[in-house]
Design a protein that fits this description.
By secondary structure, the chain is of the alpha+beta class. It has a single domain, classed as Arc Repressor Mutant, subunit A (Orthogonal Bundle). It is 47% helix and 20% strand. The chain is built from three helices and three strands; from the N terminus they run βββααα. A hairpin with a 2-residue loop joins strand 1 and strand 2. The chain is elongated, with a radius of gyration of 13 Å. The protein starts with 8 loop residues before the first strand and ends in a 6-residue tail after the last helix.
């Protein structure tokens, strides 16, 4: 997926979540802790399947359910231009 943060994005990530500023558009997005985990994993170049597997292990939820949620979240990130398409 994504292995670097676009040049126009500045982010602060901690255990509570993330705040991402798009300096070009002047927009701020906030993510909860799970959203920040996914965004950071994508930024490191991890695959969706690896992210889903780790979240399933950590939460005990079914991977199928998690994968649908992760895919929907990725779509939202793309819509907000926080990930390259």
């Amino acid at each position: 997926m994504m292995n670097q943060t676009p040049q126009t994005l500045r982010a602060v990530v901690n255990t509570d979540g993330a705040v991402i500023l798009d300096t070009c558009r002047g927009e701020i997005s906030t993510l909860n802790s799970t959203g920040a985990y996914i965004w950071e994993a994508l930024r490191r170049g991890e695959t969706v399947s690896l992210i889903v597997s780790r979240l399933a292990t950590e939460t005990g939820e079914r991977p199928e359910t998690i994968e649908l949620d992760v895919q929907e979240f990725i779509h939202c990130l793309e819509e907000k231009q926080l990930l390259p398409r």
